[in-house]
Write a structure and sequence with these properties.
Largest interface: A-B, 11 and 9 residues
Largest sheet of chain A: 5 strands, mixed
CATH superfamily of chain B: ACP-like
Distance between the termini of chain A: 48 Å
Helix content of chain A: 25-40%
Radius of gyration of chain A: 19 Å
Distance between the termini of chain B: 12 Å
Number of strands of chain A: 13
Number of domains of chain A: 2
Strand content of chain A: 15-25%
CATH superfamily of the largest domain in chain A: Thiolase/Chalcone synthase
Number of strands of chain B: 0
Number of helices of chain B: 4
Structural class of chain A: alpha/beta
Strand order of the largest sheet of chain A: 1-7-6-4-5
CATH topology of the largest domain in chain A: Peroxisomal Thiolase, Chain A, domain 1
Shape of chain A: globular
Shape of chain B: globular
Order of helices and strands of chain A: EEHHEHEHEHEEEEHEHEHHHEE
Helix content of chain B: 55-70%
Oligomer: heterodimer
CATH class of chain B: Mainly Alpha
CATH class of the largest domain in chain A: Alpha Beta
Strand content of chain B: under 5%
Largest sheet of chain B: none
Structural class of chain B: mainly alpha
Order of helices and strands of chain B: HHHH
CATH architecture of chain B: Orthogonal Bundle
Radius of gyration of chain B: 11 Å
């Protein structure tokens, strides 16, 4: 006997309904960073555009920060926690192989009916999450999805490495994605290049550290010039593909919100794209540092709060980093 | 050929780092004389690759200390 099964009916379109951010309290200046590395405030600003960054408290976790940002986004969306069908948490710094940060965050915010999973796509993770959330809502697997980008990179940074100590920071951003009457999330363009897996990696695995030890607990290791070159030469092409897929002209954008990797990368991508001067560019890195998966929603939250960009505008999002993984899409701002 | 590459390279260096075109001479060091930092150097390399259809691998970039080194490399390897 052949039995018919019901397909899950989804919404025609999905949209970002709200955004929320969480910035840890402790401000870390370039002067404090330079207590551990041979560098200067001027050099750090010139090379990265970073003026200061935030570090979480020692006992403040990825779950704490992620739950705080998610709770804010949820409140602003007007959606009850029980209505959330999936919690996606993009991060690479939750210090447990299992369970996921997402499961605990879902529990903390009362999303008792939600599935939960982490996305390990590093700095591209949030934009991966937006693509997946869009498809979950349009596929009918979830009506509402929370996408969180959160990192506590300060736990995994070699604070004595002058090439990276000044870059990484902590924070969380989150959005609620739900059904929409009109198209509000363009097609996601994504990919990864595992042949460049060593461009951003760890100094060693936790297993090697346990078995062989070493002076320094495993930390992030980045080939800065290689990553810069890849980002500056490849990401403009990805951005153009995302614009084309969404049918949006560059000049019609209301915001450019790239992953806050380094101000120099942001500038080089904008220049390569020939982004018109009137379009606001996210520059949250100046006061937030590079927060990997959290940087795009944090920048979006800051720009909206500052009145630099407005609800209903079209924003180009692009995330890129370890993997080397990337994802981009055009979205309508919440 | 070399003169054309020098002129093209000077235009790129000017575009990337704001260095006056006239300062970009064969004997000038990118880092010490023209104050081009490592990230700007990467931008110069990307632009040069586009312009002359040449591959300049990361391992080669560190050998391009002077403008003359770059002109010689591009001239020898461009299509």
């Amino acid at each position: 006997m052949t039995s018919a099964i019901k397909a899950s009916g989804g919404a025609k379109y999905a949209k970002i309904m709200s955004v929320g951010g969480y910035r840890p309290e402790r401000v870390v200046t370039n002067a404090e960073i330079c207590e551990h590395i041979d560098s200067s405030d001027e050099w750090i600003r010139e090379r990265s555009g970073i003026i200061e960054r935030r570090y979480a408290a020692l006992d403040e976790t990825v779950v704490d920060m992620g739950a705080a940002a998610a709770a804010t986004a949820l409140e602003r969306s007007g959606i009850a926690p029980e209505q959330i069908g999936m919690v996606l948490t993009a991060n690479v710094t939750h210090p447990y192989q299992t369970p996921s940060a997402a499961a605990e965050i879902a529990y903390r915010i009362g999303a008792v009916n939600a599935g939960a999973l982490d996305i390990a796509a590093a700095c591209a993770g949030f934009c991966y999450g937006i693509g997946i959330a869009n498809d979950l809502v349009c596929g009918g697997t979830a009506k509402y999805v929370i996408v969180i980008g959160v990192e506590k990179l300060s736990d995994w940074t070699d604070h004595k490495d002058r090439g990276s100590a000044f870059i990484f920071a902590d924070g969380a951003g989150a959005v609620v994605v739900g059904p929409s009457d009109t198209p509000a999330i363009g097609p996601t363009i994504w990919g990864a290049d595992g042949s460049q897996k060593d461009a951003i990696t760890m100094t060693q695995s936790l297993i090697d550290y346990r078995n062989h030890g070493g002076e320094i607990f495993p930390t992030l290791l980045m080939q800065g010039q290689q990553v810069f070159r890849w980002a500056v030469s490849e990401m403009p092409k990805v951005a153009v593909r995302a614009l084309d897929a969404a049918g949006v002209q560059l000049a019609d954008l209301d915001a450019f919100i790239p992953h806050q990797a380094n101000m120099r990368i942001t500038d080089a991508i904008a220049k390569s794209l020939k982004l018109p001067a009137h379009i606001p560019i996210a520059r949250d890195i100046a006061y937030t540092g590079n927060t990997s998966a959290a940087s795009v929603p944090l920048a979006m939250d800051r720009m909206l709060a500052a009145g630099e960009i407005h609800s209903g505008g079209a924003a180009l999002l692009i995330g890129f980093g370890a993997g080397l993984a990337y994802a981009a899409q055009v979205v309508i701002l919440p | 050929m070399s003169q054309q590459i020098l002129e093209g390279l000077a235009a790129i260096v000017n575009e990337v780092a704001g260095v006056p075109v006239a300062d970009v001479q064969l004997d000038k060091s990118f880092i010490d004389d023209l104050d081009i930092d490592s990230l700007s150097m990467v931008e110069v390399v990307i632009a040069a690759e586009d312009k002359w259809g040449v591959k300049i691998p990361d391992s080669e970039v560190k050998n391009l200390k002077t403008v003359g080194d770059a002109v010689t490399f591009i001239s020898a390897n461009s299509k």
